Every structure is written in C-alpha cells, then in structure tokens.
Amino acid sequence: YMCVTSVFTSCGQWLEDQTKKLHKDMKKSTEADLAMSKAAVKISGDLLNNPLCEQDQAFLESMTALDTAMKRMDTFNQEKVNQIQKTVIDPLKKYSGVFPSLNMAVKRREQALQDYKRLQSKVEKYEEKEKTGPVMVKLHQAREELRPVREDFEAKNKQLLDEMPKFYHSRIDYFQPSFEALIRAQVVYFTEMYKIFSELTDQIDQAGLTDEQRERETEAKLSELRALSIVADD
Where, if anywhere, are coiled coils annotated (predicted)? Predict the structure, then answer.
C-alpha cells in the first residue's frame, strides 16, 4: 500500500510539474514573440523618421515599405499569439487547475490508510492476547471499529487505482488539439511572413544583388569613409 501511495504521489507531481513548466515556457515564448515584433516596428519607425528620408526619395520609399512590412508582421504576430493563448496557454492553465483536487484525493487515501493500519494493529494486538471474556469483547469492538474504516480505505484506494491511469493517459487526448492548433498558428504566421518579406524584397531589392555582393559593396563604402581625413587613424 505504501508503494502504491508513492506511485500516486510521484506520478501526479511529475505531471503537475511538467504542465506548469510547459505553461510557463509557452508564456515566455509568446512574450518574446511580441517583444520581437514590437521592437521591429520601433526600429522601422525610427528609420522612417530619419532626416535622410527628407533628402532621398529612394530611401524614403524603402523605409516606408519596411515600416509597412513590420507593422503587418506585428499584426499577424499578435493574431498568432492570441490564437496560442486561447488554444494552448489557457488550456494548460485549466489543466493545472485539476491538480489540487487530485492531490487532495491522494492525501485522503493516505489518511484513510493510516487510520486503517492503526485500527488493524489494534485488532491484531487483541487477537494475540489470551481469549478472556473482556479481551473478546474488546476484540469484537475493535473489529467493528475497523470494518467501516477498512471499507472507506478500500473505496478510496480503488477509486485512485481505477481513475489515476485514466487521468494520466487522458493528457494525450486533452493536449493533442492544443498542439495541433499551435502548429497551425505557426504555419499560418510563417506563411504570411514569407509573403510579406517576399513583397518587401521585390520593393527594395531593385539591384538584385546577392548577400556576398552586398557585403563587398558595404566594405567598399566603408573603405571610402575610412579614407577621409576626418576619420583617419592618428
């Protein structure tokens, strides 16, 4: 019986800990997602407000396209986070809410077991004594006292033996729709991101240069700047 108690406790505690950890990690993930898109909007807005946009029409058009793209990204990101909140984070929180009742059921079984063992020990003590009249009376009383306590423990024990495995295995059926919804939300988001950034590339990447060509071009520009006397090394 004590071994069964340990299994009930460890199984429930492990599942509760994992559920809380997943809930916490999902919240941190969505908060980081929102912070990322908000920062991107802030950066594009700062670039759009750069005085250079007033002097260079091409730069203004590029920064306007970037700012529009970042705002669209932020909108889709917010929709994704809202969807994850409803389909993953909220269900995780609700699932965590069942553990206090589960833990209480385990504690009630443990208390019933202790009562049962105490009275069983009392019965055994009288059974070992000489069978005198007073002893037999006390033995009968102890057995009568034990009977409802044993029945109570056996009922609680059977309930946990029957329902704990069902509860444990039900987590798959409960969480599978949430994880499917998480995947769908990510697929929709990244599909839209591909469209947004493809359009942005078409708008601002007029030269069609490769990353390597752009890197060489940047280095060349930087070399020109370094050649100026005002930035030359002493």
Answer: 102-129
Per-residue pLDDT for 1 more than 80? Answer: no
Domain-wise residue ranges, the chain: 1-201
What angle, rounded to 10 degrees, do the helices at 133-204 and 2-48 form? 20
- CA dist 39 and 63 (Å) reads 15
Q: Which CATH number fits domain 1-201: 1.20.1270.60, 3.30.420.140, 3.20.20.70, 3.40.1190.10?
A: 1.20.1270.60
For the stretch 59-86, pLDDT in tens is 899 899 999 999 999 999 999 999 999 9
H or E stretch including 130? none
Which tokens in the block code for residue 106? 């385990």
Q: Do residues 32 and 90 touch, judged by C-beta distance below 8 A?
A: no
